[in-house]
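Summarise this fold before class:
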Amino acid sequence: MSRSRIIVAVSAFLWVAHIVVCTSLGSSPPGPVLSDILQLVIGGLLITAMLMAAKRSEGMARAFWRLATGAYTLWMIAQSLGVYNDLARTPVPPDTCRSLGYHKAVKAPAGGRSPRSSHQVTP
């Protein structure tokens, strides 16, 4: 059996396992963690399959597969952080964005004013 067929077979099995986990466990405690782990493994198989497709391709197709691989690699990093957060059970403080200064960056372009107030037309 070729490597690509093995990846497809394992992915299909994991996809069915993911459906079973979601329908049987739902949002009860082991369900979300198992679901996230299955998604992470399926994503790893997807990246492997895309790298294999890039090796077989030429020109624009190779560039497409590499770009898609990069995008799913970023997704996999985010999914890994989600799995870590599920397993470590560390709550995110509610004022995290405020302490990092994001609230100031959002208000900075408008200068803290409403856009309508700076463009009033007088008759």
